[in-house]
Amino acid sequence: MIDAIGRPQSVLVLGGSSELAQAIVAKLVPARCRTVVLAGRESERLSEAAERARAAGADVAETVAFDTTDIEHHLAFVDQVFDRFGDFDLVIAAAGVLGTQGVLERDPVATASLLTTNFTGLAAAMVAVAGRLRHQGHGRLIVLSSVAGLRARKVNFVYGSSKAGLDAFAQGLGDSLVGTGVSVMIVRPGFVVGRMTEGMTPAPFSTTPDAVADAVVKGIESGAGVVYVPSVLRWVFAVMRQLPQLVWRRMPG
Amino acid sequence: MSAPLGRRGLLTGWGRTAPTAADVVHAVDPDIVGRAIEEAAASQSAGGRGIIARGLGRSYGDAAQNAGGTVVDATWLDAIHKVDVASGVVTVAAGVSLQTLMERLVPLGWFVPVTPGTRLVTVGGAIAADIHGKNHHIDGSFCSHVLEMTLVTPGGTVTLSPASDPDLFWATAGGMGLTGVITAATIQMIPVETSYMLVDTERAPDLDSVMDKMLTGDDAYRYSVAWIDCQSTGRRLGRSVLTRGDHARTEDLPERLRGPPDRGRAFVPRTLVRVPFTPPSGLLNPLTVGAFNEFWFRKAPAHQVAKPHHMAGFFHPLDGVGEWNRLYGSKGFLQYQFVVPDEHGETVRKVIERLTTVKLASFLAVLKRFGPGDPGPLSFPMPGWTLALDLPIGYHALDELLDALDEQVVSAGGRVYLAKDSRVAPATFRTMYPRVDEWIAVRNRVDPHGVLRSDLGRRLGLCSDRSAPSTSDGRSRRRTSRPAGTKRVAPKRGGGAPSPAKTTSTTRRTDTTSTTRTTDTAGTARTATPPERTGT
Fold it and tell me: Over 80: is that where the pLDDT of B261 sits?
């Protein structure tokens, strides 16, 4: 159960290899999170993350095979995980890939695949998760969105639109869950300097996985619905969204 | 399938933190309790999430919540079954509040044996938390005055006395409702002549002097409590207002308070004001609380003897303000109450020192002395000092601060009070209550399948956190994983099933009628869900 100060005792990560999710888990485990389940494609990175959680003191730190695009099995998968590990106080929807815009623009299959991973598949998994959370009568669903979804940019609009879809979906889901004991928190980081963006030039107001994790933990504590990292992006994007298309299109980067 | 009993609602404790949703069953008659427990037991194998009783919701944390399961609103059990005016033995339904007992019985010359800082608790809750009052050093805790109680367990209804089944009786005393639903109790009241108290009030300039006064003087008073200013520092650290007294006899009162026959015994409490809405968190901050504390300290007489005070004001000053918990704002608050043995009185000082260093506003800090505890393995009181602090949520390092206080309390051999708790760590709890395994053994006897569950129980590992039951030990895992990709018939859920919130809003009804026959639709949604996951 999440306690009065917002500390969860168990967490399920959909997309357990996500650097952001792992940074969040690294903050939760020392703060009493006893059960960590990382769902994702089997990889060394995934099992190493579980190993780290165990070393940090989690009683249960396991990996389970999960593919966001395997939509048909999402319901069975989620049931299986909840039946096996018990309640989850926190579920982090973290799966996502950035893709290479140049490739995506010319490859409809790659575009569809990215959209399925980042949006369609993850949203479907969130439906299954929401069902179990609603049944257990408590829990928080954390959705890793991005400011890239607030207004699509020509340099990454495939990724951006996948996040836009996810973000809108999460907003609606959150509203539909009011009164059920379950709540949704949307996290909108800016440019995160990390593995996903290796080799790229950081955009203004860039942040780090650690800073995102701090903001998320604080958001859980305060019961926030939307978290921007850094928080100034809330205001930056309030302006950005109003820019005329002509200006927006010509923004550098 | 008969109509489901409950209706989904969001619940929190008095601290207004960590809300969870449960199906609330109004216990309009005692039979419903048994039926609800049966139903909860029957649905266990299909993903049911157990049942817990709830009284007036004055536990600060998650004791009377049961996420995804059933919560029995026991305030409906409000009958006064039997009163023996000659002996002061009363038998009441468990939902009767201490306020009702006082209103009805003070005029007859009987007072509740133990009252906490609020009279808005039920008798069932008083037993489940084994509450204490300002007279613990003399009279012990509430359950010491309970002669008999009726407990509905998954195995059936039992009548318990300390002699008939001492293990179950004392596991229920302080057992936070996890041994069954208490539906009635017989209590030995204490005789009083008037509804007034004779109170001695004195100010103490610092913590040492107030603790010294209490150590040497408390035995001469039936009731004793010190209010501590947790914000003054240095020489004035722990300056206090100590109030002590006893029930006034008729001849103690001035003529005007005696009045016409029986007026001196009238107990008609009133709520003076009500907090009409929840202000933003932060209203109670070091500045405002500091100002209040200053005022409160200066307002108290330096030394005053045998001043008549009405019971209501003496015992329950905060009950005059309806829903005062809202003052802490939308983020809510918590109460940290611990006890440490006499020889570790210095822990009280360490805790207060620690609080003053972080500039946290503790509006209410109350120091009391405890006498010997009772045999309940989860009962809170033990001989020594108990300090209770109300703290707003929002201070960024509250978690670390309280964990540090836990450490000090544990190293002093003390513990925190479960009725107030909303955040202690499971391992710390086990250290604080070393007899928990005794308690679990008794619970397993009366509730082998773990039907009685609460959020507090889940949080502390006292009951299972699984939707589908595995074993009574919530940690063990005997389920085998289904091979990946195995097909199973899974009707649409989430998207397909109507959400309980939606369905309840479509079926509007008045409170009383909604209690027995509840929304079919909500229930169907709920009962339709489980079969999906029975196939494992």
Answer: no
Other Cβ atoms closer than 10 A to B326? 18
In 3D space, the residue among A27, A31, A26 whose CA is nearest the CA of residue A53 turns out to be: A26
Q: Is 3.40.50.2300 the CATH classification of the domain at A10-248?
A: no
Q: Does B165 touch chain A (CB under 8 A)?
A: no
**In terms of Cα–Cα distance, which of A239, A213, A200, A32 is closest to A101?**
A200
**pLDDT value at B510 more than 70:** no
CB A142 within 8 A of CB A185: yes
Q: What is the DSSP string of B293-353?
A: HHHHHHHS-SEEEEEEEEHHHHH-GGGGEETGGGGG-TT-EEEEEEEE-GGGTHHHHHHHH
Range in A12-21, A155-164, B391-400 the model is least confident about = B391-400
Chain A residues closer than 8 Å to B467 by CB? 82-83, 86-87, 132, 135-136
Residue A209: Cβ within 10 Å count: 22
Give every CB contact of residue A190 below 8 A, 6+ residues apart in sequence: A146, A147, A203, A205, A206, A207, A228, A229, A230, A233
Q: What is the mean pLDDT of residues B414-433?
A: 97
Q: Which residues are bridge partners to B52 per DSSP? A: B71
Query: Mind giving me the DSSP string for B79-109?
Result: -EEEEETTTTEEEEETT-BHHHHHHHHGGGT
3-state secondary structure of B517: coil
- Contacts B487 to A, Cβ<8 Å: 76
Q: Give me B447's structure tokens.
A: 């509730």
Tokens 């933990």 locate to: A217
Q: What pLDDT does residue B493 have? A: 37
C-alpha distance from B48 to closest chain A C-alpha (Å): 9
Query: Judging by beta carbons within 10 Å of its beta carbon (0-12, 13-18, 19+), is residue A206 exposed, middle or buried?
Result: middle
Residue B201 host element (H or E): strand B196-204
User: Which of A22-36, A82-96, A133-147, B294-308 is predicted with the least confidence, judged by mean pLDDT?
Assistant: B294-308
Query: Of residues B89 and B476, which shows the higher confidence score?
Result: B89
Instruction: Identify from B455, B464, B505, B526 which residue to disrupt to test chain A contact, counting A C-beta atoms within 10 A and taking the largest count.
Output: B455
Nearest residue to A79 (alpha-carbon basis) of B494, B18, B450 = B494
Say whether residue A71 is in contact with chain B using an 8 A CB cutoff: no
CB-based contact B379:B174 (threshold 8 Å): yes
Highest mean pLDDT among B222-226, B291-295, B325-329: B222-226
pLDDT in tens, B370-406: 999 999 999 999 999 999 999 999 888 899 999 999 9
Residue in A80, A136, A178 closest to B481 by CB: A80
pLDDT confidence of residue B3: 57
Backbone angle region of A243, left / alpha / beta, with phi > 0 → left and psi within -120 to 50 → alpha = beta
Q: Whose CA is closest to A18, among A213, A169, A178, A157?
A: A213
**pLDDT level of residue B255 (50, 70, 90 thresholds):** confident
Domain assignments of chain A as residue spans, ordered by start: 10-248
pLDDT digits (tens, 9 = 90+) for B178-221: 999 999 999 999 999 999 999 999 999 999 999 999 999 999 99
Can you read off the two tokens belonging to residue B299?
């307002």
Q: What is the ipTM of this complex?
A: 0.94
Contacts of B8 in chain A (CB under 8 A): 179-180
A81-116 in b/e form (b: 16+ CB < 10 A) is bbbbbbbbbbbbbbbbebbebeebeeeeeebebbbb
